[in-house]
Amino acid sequence: MKRTSLFTVMATATARAVGRPVAFITAALVIAAWAITGPLFQFSDTWQLVVNTATTIVTFLMVFLIQNTQNRDSEAIQIKLDELLRAIEGAHNALLDLEELDEVELDRIRRDYGRLAREAREALKRGERDTGSPEIQGRSPEA
Fold first, then answer.
1. What are the angstrom distances between the C-alpha of 12 and each of 8, 57, 69, 70, 112?
2. Is residue 104 part of a domain?
3. 127 lies in a domain?
4. N or C: which end of the chain has fewer CB within 10 A?
5. Same domain, 14 and 78
6. What are φ and ψ of residue 42, in 5° steps?
7. What is the pTM of this model?
8. Average predicted confidence (pLDDT) for the chain
């Protein structure tokens, strides 16, 4: 089941490597070495261009690698949450795959859950229980 592309392996390894303290220390040392060499190169345009170009290239590439890693992590979390909803008796299966809905539908569902939360807090204030699986307005997310 574990078949990954070369890009996925590279993106994951790179994201892990640059997220460690040693990567930050290395980057700081490179910048310090560049700054120290400034007087040696009379702070020339070329001296400035070297660091500007290097940091731009690294940043440009890292954005894509890190975004790829975050997208995969987010998708995996959504799938795991969907499985929990599917497996729990009484859970609303209509909430599976919510991330595919538009903002209007998500806002409506959020308001329904906000209402349920307010009602549960009021029940607690009255000394009642706040557990259970109340319906969410009897509407499906597609309604």
1. 6, 19, 6, 9, 38
2. yes
3. yes
4. N
5. yes
6. 50, 35
7. 0.63
8. 88
CA 26, 30, 34 angle in degrees (round to 5)? 170
Residues 70 and 12 in one domain: yes
Q: Name the one residue in this structure whose structure tokens are 């991330």.
A: 99
CB neighbours of 99 closer than 8 A, spacing ≥ 6? 78
Inside any domain, residue 111: yes
In a domain, 53, yes or no: yes
Type of residue numbered 114: G
- Residue 42 DSSP one-character state: T
Closest by CA to 116, choosing from 96, 131, 98, is 131
Please give the residue range of the domain that contains residue 125: 96-143
Residue 140 has pLDDT above 70, yes or no: no
The amino acid at residue 58 is V
Angle, CA 115 vertex, CA 97 and CA 109 arms, to 5°: 20
Helices vs. strands in the chain: H and E counts, helices first: 4, 0
67-119 confidence digits (pLDDT tens): 888 899 999 999 999 999 889 888 888 888 888 899 999 999 999 999 989 99
